[in-house]
Amino acid sequence: MSQPLTNAAEFTVSEIAQAVKRTVEDEFGHVRVRGEISGFRGQHSSGHAYFTLKDDAASIDAVVWKGNYARLAFKPEEGLEVIATGRLTTFPRSSKYQIVIENIEPAGAGALMALLEERRKKLLAEGLFARDRKRPLPYLPRVIGVVTSPTGAVIRDILHRLDDRFPSHVLVWPVRVQGDTCAPEVVNAIEGFNALVPGGPIPRPDLLIVARGGGSIEDLWGFNEEAVVRAVAGSDIPVITAVGHETDTTLVDYASDMRAPTPTAAAEAAVPVRAELIAYVEDQGARQRQTMRRGLMSLKDRLRAASAGLPRPADLASTQRQSLDLASSQLSSALRHFVQARRIAFSNLAASVQPRLIRQSHAELSRGLDVLERRGRAGLAANLERARLTFAPRARQLPAAAATALERKQAALARLVPRLSDKPLRAELRHAQSHIAPLGARLDAAAGQAARARRSHWAQLGKLLETLSYRNVLARGYALVQDEAGQIVTSQAGARPGEALKLSFADGEVGVVVAGAPPTRRKPSRSGPDDGSQESLF
Length: 538
What we know:
five-stranded mixed β-barrel, five-stranded parallel beta sheet, 51% helix
């Protein structure tokens, strides 16, 4: 039974999806969503991050694009409760809505402490806080590198304390000590100091001090970042950390070689007191000189006691002098015997290196090379003959096979021509047939490939013909309206009262007579052209 006609507009799935996408994006601009991160498995190979934000009643898909992920102050972690800022949109392919996140922040101080404890346990399990990894500090560093803000009171306290105790060469690497850029700047400073070449134009520090003043947990959070902790732990230069006040503890304090309660204490731990060191050196020098004097006196006494029991030098050399005289007397006869033995050996070898023997060996090697050359030429000729016997029959069969394939294609095209009822398509078919003859000359080299390409091309043309045929439109419930002359009626003005018309349906034709003036079209319920009207079909 045919379906009743309707004026309801038709939408494609893509149109519905795009309309929903525009509605969601227009209604919800930038939003802040609080929820727990679920399903986070790190960055995708493309650099993007995909996960879900959920609470006890609902969930929403979330995505962080690659560019925004690198700028996040807090990286997403599984199970972390966060406040995400972004914009809502939809993903038409799976009919889902999602939030495109631009910024992430923990949901309160409790979440920060939970994140801090989880990160501490993770790094502790990796061994970054192990005591055996900590290195001793240099007793008297010649160059000290300081990583801190150049405008705060911390750098002034450190420089003042170093000047009081032991004036040293100080290199300051200015960084921001809080905010989104704190962690990457501190990492760059530590890695930059480690990259300096010893003996270069900029001296390489013997000791690093990473310091800042006190503050809240949010202010000090840059020194709890995993990248900063790993940079401190991986530094080849010993590191002293002095972040915050005595009661403030950050993760870099666990990874550093020494944790100072304040920046001033870090300066005191870096160098000794110069006056005390001078006094100590002078005391040690006096003790060393006294010890050396006592040692020299003791050695003199022992030398005098030992010299009394030593034999005379002439007695020690007499035996060796006698052995030397005996060896010199035997040297001349040994040289004569050696020269005579070498002369006999050379005369025995002279018989085997005569020119006649060398020429004979050269002639034998030349004959061997000639034999190998003749064998190589004969083998190459045999291989060429076998290849000719193998491929010659196939080359003779190739034109016949190409002609057979061409005839089959022409027969298939001849069967397909009566089925085509659309004039533009018949013209296109005739145009395609005119190109088949020139292609036949190229089938000798690419018969198989050309046959597959043409078969695919005609299959696509057949599908296109079926798709564009008006009979498919009639099968969906539409009708073709024609007047007595067979012309298509495409508007209301073309249907005059009393005129006989013919309606063509998918399953047959019906004759009708226009009884009155055409009815006025009812205004569509929604703005825009009616996608299902007759004008849109023809």
